[in-house]
Amino acid sequence: MNINYNNMKYKITCADVKNLPSDGIPEIVISGRSNAGKSSLVNAMAGTNKLARVSGKPGKTREIIYFDLDGKALIADLPGYGYSAASKAVTAKFSDLCDNYFRCGRKISLVLFLMDIRRTPSEEDVGMLDFLNKTDIPYFIVFTKCDKFSANELRKQLSFLSECFNFADDSIVFTVSSKDKKGIADLKTAISDIISVN
């Protein structure tokens, strides 16, 4: 399917699953720890730095932010988890939002499970991967901020991370950098392939 990622645009922000859009087109979910680079990835795929708001402070995304992908799919940017500096009430609120999202019966075509490749996996990361492995939702593991490593360091880190996680045998793994755009084209091609069969 021919998808123009430059035509990605903001659609709606939702603080409650009752307000989620019902366009009937494939839905691609971006999930991960706070400050994993979710907003930066949206911008990198769209070829702009102005579509999704990027903050140096983790935990700024506290609602589900939807983007329209060329009329062919919806991109749902979920609030990040694991932000310890947020109040317990605030953390619980957007944690519940994410839980309700995955439990509301919405047809999800793909989850992009983002992790900062420099970080040791958190309990929440392990729990999220375990959840995805127990569902029928297709997912890609996307390691972000890979420009911080040399090629040799990247191989060593991927080997270390493969030991930390219970990767499914058929897990699809991408290493990307939103800064220098490495891996972004391959990721977009893989997403387009998923959309074309949904």
Task: Describe the protein.
This protein is α/β, with parallel strands linked by helices and 198 residues long. The chain is 32% helix and 21% strand. The radius of gyration is 16 Å and the shape is globular. The model is unreliable at 56-60 and 84-94 (pLDDT under 50).
Report the mean per-residue pLDDT as an integer. Answer: 86
Tally of DSSP β-strands: 7
Q: What sequence of helices (H) and strands (E) makes up the elements?
A: EEHEEHEHEHEH
Number of contiguous helices:
5
Termini separation comes to 11 Å
Which sequence of strands runs across the widest sheet?
1-3-4-2-5-6-7
- Binned, the helix content reads 25-40%
Structural class: alpha/beta
Descriptors for this entry?
21% strand, single chain, 198 residues, 7 strands, alpha/beta, seven-stranded mixed beta sheet
